[in-house]
Amino acid sequence: MALGAVLLAQTPRPGSYKVTIPNTTVSFEMVSIPAGEFQMAPGRKVRLDAFWMMAHEVTWDEYRLFMFATPGDKSVDAVSHPTRPYVEMSFGMGIEGFPAISMTQHAANKYAEWLSVKTGQFYRLPTEAEWEYACRAGTTDDPSELGDYAWYAANSGGKYQKVATKKPNPWGLFDMLGNVMEWTLDGYAPYQPGNETNPWVKGTGPYPHAVRGGSWNDAADKLTCAARVPSDPSWKQQDPQLPKSIWYMTDAQWLGFRLVRPSKVPTDAEKRRYWNNGVEHDEQ
Amino acid sequence: MKNEGTTPERRTFLKTAGAAVAAGFPGIISAQTVTNAIRVGMVGCGGRGSGAASQALAADDYAELTAAGDIDQGQIDQCLSSLKRISKTAGRVKVEADSQYVGLDAFQKVIDSKVDVVILATPPGFRPQHLAAAIGAGKHVFCEKPAGTDAPGVRSVLASTALAEQKNLSLMSGFCWRYNNMIQDTVQQVDSGAIGRVVAYYATYYTSPVKPIPPASTRPAGMSDVEWQIRNWYNFVWLCGDSLVEQAVHSADKIAWVMHDEPPVSCVAVGGRTIPAEGGNIYDHFEVNYIYPNGVRAFLANRQIVNCYNENSDYILGTDGTCTIGRGPQPRIEGKTNWTFSGQQYNMYQREHDVLFAAIRKNTPVNNGKRLATSTMLAIMGRMAAYTGQQVTWDQALNSQEKLVPDHVDWKGSLPVPPRAEPGVTKLG
């Protein structure tokens, strides 16, 4: 309580709020995440500034506005858009209210840029530390009743499920564990020893980046706030072309994302660094 | 044919190399015991040809790409630079400037450039001619699907397949699902009776348009008919075969697989076009109803229109259950038997090349040219039924004399586009 009071004094904690994407009826909720620190690994305490995080994974309702955007909206025409996929990218698992899947990290970054231009607020993928901090939500343990909180192999019926249909975590975030794995902003690398503030390991190439949370396809032991998965070229092995698409991970039907909005708005140059993250091409 | 003198010698060479490899795939050949290169030439350097070349190089530690042909130097350049970005195999991309061939005769120059394996990945209208030339010259071939766009082309592919067999050559088809372990396991379940007797097969291929043609007004002044058509090949029946033959043929091939590659008796079909054709002559939707000798029906539906319901699935209905492929990531069987694929799925494109290059190394040819031809014919037959509005038998289709691909294609030549087919008016050729 004392710590929270101090934090409130330092960083006015804004409340959670709802955003409707301009000129659409599609909306999402942002949950306010307090500044604070947590033990990310033995000997590694991480301190983070406050941010807002999407209460649920980005749904097809949201993502398809970007994926199938038609030219003419001058404000966002400059943001690069996914190529139109030949095949149906939900693979029959459902669209309305279901999480978007099978996008590359580049695509997720461009969605963040597109949404930022659309709404006038800065969005980006969470860093790995932000993601884990939000997943832990002030607790040290993962939920013991996993089935109450998460869709995973034992209860998913072999497919993803509608977002926010299980219980949220203590901070009001749904499906941090399970349903679809989530992209983070970080390259996958061994943790630096020692304590850090707002760490971000910027990727240097398209692989590997850190993915978190486990999915509908995973056993319970993969669904922990600390489990890390490195992205891999095999996630788009069904793409028959070379160069392979920079937009789709054809084989990663368990991979999605959610975005954060930092409380401190970065400079334009910093924003570009977040949105262009070494994944703009596909090298193996 | 020019290389007849050198090719058998090279194949003997490879055979000797193969003897050093007792078993397993070339990817795990240890150390330097084998240094004989397998020289690969590619015909068609687009996205798929480039992908196939990358898989060829990954399939064998001593495969090297030595020749490339296309109608466009820019496409060759892009292909080679993409291949050189794959660090593991970049050193075996050895296509010097004098082994890059541009033009409609590039295929022959690639074949004549002392290669052992040829990858055929141009628009499918050219495939029968290219395959005949490659097999005739004694080359092993990776041949993308579909095998052709008309019945004379399919018959030519059948003849090349027989010749490959006589010559002990490998001919690997690009019907990739046959090499997908997940679908192999699924078909095996169906074959072993998990859904009882198969009574019907419904396959969907509802997608967005593939390579839509730009407005005719954007055609550069002075560009010949032939060049315009080849650059927009997907939109012309003689080059692409129409969407049913170029794309949904994958579903036709899966139907054929479950039907044990026995041809249907006949089919009827509907189809047409609702979006502007911009001078092209393909349809944007088809639905074909095949009937097999035992009364089994197969339905194949495809559409390539934006903002419509999309789906690429297979529903195999049996007396004791249903097998579903493509609604959800894993195929499943529901009914008296309940089964879901739960293993690791391997890269089917890589697997095709692993099998091809292992066959070459071991001199145990793999040849799936026959089903490459017959699955292509299955789709062409559906197109014939849709275009004419008639019931079409397998024998009528396979023996059709309708020739869509001109004997001589001149890059600078004029080539009027036949009107889009009209059911009830268009005659079966």
Summarize the topology.
The complex is a heterodimer of chains A (284) and B (429).
Chain A: H1 2-10, E1 17-20, E2 27-33, E3 36-41, E4 44-48, E5 51-54, H2 60-67, H3 105-119, H4 128-136, H5 146-149, E6 181-187, E7 196-197, E8 209-212, E9 228-230, E10 255-256, E11 260-262, H6 268-275
Parallel strand pairs in A: 4-7, 6-10
Antiparallel strand pairs in A: 1-2, 2-5, 3-4, 5-11, 6-8, 8-9
Chain B: H1 7-19, E1 38-43, H2 47-59, E2 63-70, H3 73-84, E3 100-102, H4 106-111, E4 117-120, H5 127-136, E5 140-143, H6 151-166, E6 171-173, H7 181-191, E7 198-207, H8 225-231, H9 237-240, H10 243-246, H11 249-258, E8 266-272, E9 285-291, E10 297-304, E11 311-318, E12 321-325, E13 332-335, E14 339-340, H12 348-362, H13 369-388, E15 392-393, H14 394-398
Parallel strand pairs in B: 1-2, 1-4, 2-3, 4-5, 5-6, 7-10
Antiparallel strand pairs in B: 7-11, 8-9, 8-15, 9-10, 11-12, 12-13, 13-14
Average pLDDT for all residues of chain B: 92
Percentage of residues assigned to helices of chain B:
25-40%
Helix proportion range of chain A: 10-25%
Tally of alpha and pi helices of chain A: 6
Percent of residues in beta strands of chain B: 15-25%
End-to-end C-alpha gap of chain A: 49 Å
**Biggest β-sheet: strands ordered side by side in the sheet of chain A:** 1-2-5-11
The value of Rg of chain A in angstroms is 18 Å
Poorly predicted regions of chain A are 1-13
Describe the largest sheet of chain B.
Answer: 9 strands, mixed
| Main β-sheet description of chain A | 4 strands, antiparallel
The largest contact between protein chains, plus residue counts on each side, is: A-B, 27 and 38 residues
Percent range for β-strand residues of chain A: 15-25%
Give the mean pLDDT of chain A: 89
In quaternary terms, these chains amount to heterodimer
Number of helices of chain B: 14
Rg of chain B over CA atoms, rounded to whole Å, is: 22 Å
Span between termini of chain B: 33 Å
Low-pLDDT stretches of chain B are 1-33
- Based on secondary structure, the structural category of chain B is alpha/beta
Identify the overall geometry of chain A.
globular
